[in-house]
Specification:
Layout (H helix, E strand, L loop, with lengths): L7 E2 L4 E8 L2 E4 L5 H23 L4 H7 L4 H24 L2 H5 L2 H18 L1 H4 L23 H10 L27 H11 L10 H11 L1 H4 L25 H10 L14 H12 L6
Antiparallel strand pairs: 1-2, 2-3
Length: 290
């Protein structure tokens, strides 16, 4: 409901605008005159600021008031930067990552470029500090699903994991429960046994001996008899107490029941060879590379 006439508000001693909604009236409080004057001046200044740099001669006074780079100046700066980086980029593109690490000067360039490329392309999933998150590996530790050598890291960055690229990494955690590979009642026993591999204990009536047998029959083919993992198929080391999807009982039961299979894009089609090599070196030198 909207009132059409002004109303005097006895509490504040002010008139209202005439608008009312649900019993609430809008007070008529004009903006301060000084604020309006500043606002109007800014509006008047805007077209002057937009046009003046292109019509006034360049001198010390106009540069003070209208100094900002033009498109041509930016293009000139970019060309100069490319010329400066040109030799290093050629070397990064042609050098083996191991050779880059062995060259202090080239290593410095690779880490700088790699850090920038990581922040733009990889940080949305792995975090700015490469600390990872649930379902996204921490790249600072020494546990690598697909191997942590320079060659392994470059292969993963270049072709990715479980994507449309025929050369991408391939490996899948089966959905033992969903696909009927294990009875639902057996899964908690396997999950409880898996927790013991990293030194964790689980309260409850779980048959660890049965869990060990089920693990040997169903899981050891990928994770190994001792649960140490296998980088050839991306099977994690279950003894390291590092959990990509969580190490509590519910998370492990969920993993065994429905399986896991994260996807990583291949960057070779998006980044040039120099940047891929720089990223490889940068990730390797974060602290967990082998």
């Amino acid at each position: 409901m909207s009132a059409q006439h002004e109303h005097f508000d006895r509490v504040t001693g002010k008139t209202t605008t005439g608008h009312e909604w649900d019993g609430i009236r809008e007070l008529n409080n004009p903006l301060p005159r000084w604020w309006l004057m500043v606002f109007y001046v800014c509006i008047a200044w805007t077209p002057i600021y937009m046009i003046a740099p292109y019509v006034l001669p360049s001198n010390r006074i106009t540069n003070i008031f209208f100094s900002f780079p033009t498109r041509s100046e930016i293009e000139t700066d970019i060309a100069a930067l490319r010329a400066t980086r040109g030799e290093s980029m050629v070397q990064l593109a042609s050098a083996d990552p191991a050779a880059i690490i062995g060259d202090p000067k080239l290593l410095g360039v690779a880490r700088a470029l790699g850090k920038a490329a990581f922040g733009t392309n990889c940080a949305p999933c792995h975090g700015q500090g490469a600390q990872g998150a649930k379902a996204y590996p921490n790249l600072n530790d020494d546990q690598w699903l697909w191997g942590g050598t320079l060659a392994d890291i470059k292969q993963t960055i270049t072709h990715g994991i479980r994507n449309e690229n025929p050369e991408s990494r391939v490996g899948q955690m089966p959905a033992f429960g969903r696909d009927g590979l294990l009875p639902k009642a057996d899964i908690p026993h396997v999950a409880a046994y898996v927790r013991t591999l990293s030194g964790r204990t689980t309260e409850g009536a779980y048959d660890l001996k049965k869990g060990a047998t089920l693990f040997s029959e169903n899981c050891a083919a990928c994770h190994g008899d001792a649960g140490k993992g296998n980088s050839d198929v991306g099977a994690p080391n279950l003894t390291a107490d590092i959990w990509l999807y969580g190490g509590d009982m519910n998370a492990i039961v969920e993993t065994v029941t429905n399986g896991r299979g994260g996807v990583m894009p291949g960057w070779a089609s998006r980044l040039d060879e120099a940047t891929v090599n720089a990223l490889t070196v940068y990730v390797h030198t974060l602290g967990g590379g082998r």
